[in-house]
Amino acid sequence: MNTSGRVRPGRGAAGGPGQGSRAPAGPPLWTVTFTAAVVVNFLLNLVFYMLMTTTAVYAIGRFGADGTTAGLAASIFVMGALACRLLSTVMLVRVGAMPLFVLGAALSFLFSLLYLAAEPLWVLMLVRFLHGAGFGLAHSAVGSIAQSVLPHARRGEGVGYFGTAATMGTALGPFAGLYAIANAGYSALFLAVATVLAAALAGGLLLRVKAHHPEGTAADGRQPREEPDPTPAAPPLRETLRRILPIGLIAFFQSIAYAGVAAFMDVHTAALGLGALAGSFFLVYASAVILVRLMTGRIVDRHGPATVFYPSAALYAAGLVLVATAPSAPVLYLGAVLLGIGYGSLLPTGQTIAMGLLPRRQSGTAFVWYFLFVDLGFGFGPFLLGALVEGIGTTSMILISCSFVAVAGVLFRTLLPPSVRSGS
């Protein structure tokens, strides 16, 4: 029995285990709005990771910051994003997703121009926080728009494609950021960030309503008032949190571990004597994620989340161990592949679950709350793990990160009802 009283996560009306097919529903997946949302999602995440993997190193080299402070300089961006994700849950309803996106993307672009003049360290942190606030608004809005136009029977597949765009950002961002600072310096990095954000703002202008949207929501994220909707009404805030909190906690602990890798990979590879491989590590990681995400959504749709979650968590932990202890480039790259398959599958699986725990018209709200917990992990991870780096080094820090993956696995087993885990 589905305890949320909702349509099962990731399942179509006619889909079920063993059927091997899904019933067509509504418009095709790749509408203009969804395609534009995927591209914008990639660009926003590209910037996020260009800076996430270089800010700690920048703070250490430019301002002489210690590991804890450098981790805070990286993660304070996420704190700004968190604050505005909370605000966006109200603003999406009151002003709509399109105005919210334009505001967030414009603020992100403007604050990105200030990195060049951000001195001393506290000013850099302020700019990071405000930039994160703009990112939180823009990312919440574009995610809400994307989720609202997904045909329900292909929800897991659509989430997989949308997440693949973010994953490309998680890999190309670190590579581009590290390449920029190694070959052209930080000024070039910050100018590149501003250019990418300008492109995201321009691309977001394609997010318009041009067709009927079967999920009961307009593509700007607002709820239509005239057309009947057979799905249940939106639950109150307390009930929303009650439903989302279990999968949110799972996403939080999953993300802490990867946040430590993303923030300190350059430092870690240097400690291993493999310093030149930090950028290529993320390219290998991204390649693995892209390949697995093309299949993950369909597997979740047809066989349920648990089919993906357990093996992915095991591969994630194994990848962390290999990355932490890698004696050579091949082992480091193998760790990147396992990380990509593992974490790259866990994130969209959790998102599909979250979307299934709220009424269909609340799919955008589910997206916002789910990624709020992901952001919490990315905000808390570098700060906590940066403190560990000071005392025990990056190898031990990454090994300890495996414990967070184990906690996520225990929570998946104990907090989610069997019907949600299996999708039955």
List keywords for this structure.
424 residues; Growth Hormone, Chain: A; disordered N terminus
Q: Supply the CATH class.
A: Mainly Alpha
CATH superfamily: MFS general substrate transporter like domains
Structural class given helices, strands, pairing?
mainly alpha
CATH architecture: Up-down Bundle
Query: How many distinct folded domains?
Result: 1
Q: Indicate the mean pLDDT.
A: 81
Order of helices and strands: HHHHHHHHHHHH
Work out the radius of gyration: 20 Å
Tell me the span between the first and last alpha carbons. Answer: 8 Å
Strand percentage: under 5%
Question: How is the main sheet built?
Answer: none
Q: Per the principal axes of the C-alpha atoms, what is the gross shape?
A: globular
Give helix % range: over 70%
Number of strands: 0
Helix tally equals 12
Pfam families: MFS_1
Protein name: MFS transporter
GO molecular function: transmembrane transporter activity
Keywords: Membrane, Transmembrane, Transmembrane helix
Q: How does this structure look, described?
A:
This protein is mainly alpha-helical. Helices cover 75% and strands 0% of the residues. It has one domain (32-224, 237-422): MFS general substrate transporter like domains (Growth Hormone, Chain: A, Up-down Bundle), CATH 1.20.1250.20. The chain starts with 31 loop residues before the first helix and ends with a helix. Mean pLDDT is 81; it is low at 1-26 and 209-233.
